[in-house]
């Protein structure tokens, strides 16, 4: 895929939707989606990128001769959210409108072998080296195209190889190319079928092992859901390193190879500066939005350090996250969501930091510094919060509920906040947690802003996050 093609990104607008509505047969919701009118030269990674903001993509079937594709999401809820988002806002691939509807298929059965299905979905894998370091099973993986490595990291970091175990930790490695000596079960160069098996030989040379030990150019603390990595240019041969601890615990921190930054890469939805942690948020409701509200909402996807609502244009704000990964994650999950009756837009800002007002400068409390807030969700490395980052949904996960609080107490709390409660249930094994389903995603977003950290008494403050489950 040509990185320099400006139209290679994914974007959306609503101009072409209405004339096609008549030819969409209505199917019942399915986690498999049928995509039509996709360009013939589109890559698998580009199609997958349409689904990533809504959850994990578990399979893909491309029918290029028919300009069609089938995309399987991990859950029906993710597919429903995706269809609801793209119905009024037609997605585009390479400047062409793409049309999405539910498929009659309930799941996709493709003949991918299990060991090919994980990383090969995102492009041609050239070389793989696996090794054990610090008692963790790890791997280095090199793609033919740097954009493929980017998409693989974006989609797979934090995902589980098996249900509830073997969590991938993926980063970019310092290496620009892998030197594979043997083709066996520990290493493979798919471009060199002539290599010996070298039975019993170590697949990783000492210098390479040393190079892997150091942090890569892009280091990600995330075990989070799919989010875009920083906008960074990769050299032509970009390796993806995957330290995966295949024991009952999580895999170790993975590393994807990338050498010095060689320029910007075209990333869908990315403007502003590469690697920037500041977001420009536009189309806010100036009568209802506050710096604290943006801090709570964007804090679902990272630790917010500063928020500035523009003094002369209060529907715009700057939000500074702890790092560029978090900024990309927040941007991809929140841009396009409705908040207080308006569709929020988020892009990377050209500012590198949010400046605090100078002494005596009029600000009306529109700029706030949250860098030392006790409400940051991601301060602790390895926190479970990293594994529970999901797109906004109508179902909220509630935790830290004291024993004395009842179902009716919680329902009333959300009703008084202006929400319509559709369903509620405590977790059977842990009554400190519950799920509550509200009338819409917009209601859930507003409830999260208003009720996260709400004092429930007995020194318990309610914790609210988006759920991947429905009731």
List the helices and strands and how they pair.
Elements: E1 10-13, E2 32-36, H1 44-51, E3 57-63, E4 68-73, H2 76-86, E5 90-93, E6 96-97, E7 99-102, H3 114-117, E8 125-133, E9 136-143, H4 146-156, E10 160-162, E11 165-167, E12 171-172, E13 187-189, H5 206-213, E14 238-243, E15 278-282, H6 291-298, E16 304-309, E17 317-321, H7 324-334, E18 338-339, E19 342-343, E20 345-348, E21 367-369, E22 395-399, H8 407-416, E23 421-426, E24 434-438, H9 441-451, E25 455-457, E26 460-461, E27 463-466
Antiparallel strand pairs: 1-5, 2-4, 2-7, 3-4, 5-6, 8-9, 8-13, 9-14, 10-11, 12-14, 15-17, 15-20, 16-17, 16-21, 18-19, 22-24, 22-27, 23-24, 25-26
Verbal overview:
The chain has four domains: 6-102, RRM (RNA recognition motif) domain (Alpha-Beta Plaits), CATH 3.30.70.330; 114-243, RRM (RNA recognition motif) domain (Alpha-Beta Plaits, 2-Layer Sandwich); 278-369, Alpha-Beta Plaits (2-Layer Sandwich), CATH 3.30.70.330; 393-466, Alpha-Beta Plaits. It is 17% helix and 25% strand. The protein has helices at 44-51, 76-86, 114-117, 146-156, 206-213, 291-298, 324-334, 407-416, 441-451; strands at residues 10-13, 32-36, 57-63, 68-73, 90-93, 96-97, 99-102, 125-133, 136-143, 160-162, 165-167, 171-172, 187-189, 238-243, 278-282, 304-309, 317-321, 338-339, 342-343, 345-348, 367-369, 395-399, 421-426, 434-438, 455-457, 460-461, 463-466. The chain has a five-stranded antiparallel beta sheet with strand order 12-14-9-8-13. It has a five-stranded antiparallel beta sheet with strand order 20-15-17-16-21, with helices on one face. Strand 8 and strand 9 (136-143) form a beta hairpin. Helix 6 (291-298) crosses helix 9. The longest helix is centred in the N-terminal third of the chain and has 11 residues, at 76-86. 45% of the residues are buried. Mean pLDDT is 75; it is low at 1-25, 111-116 and 205-274.
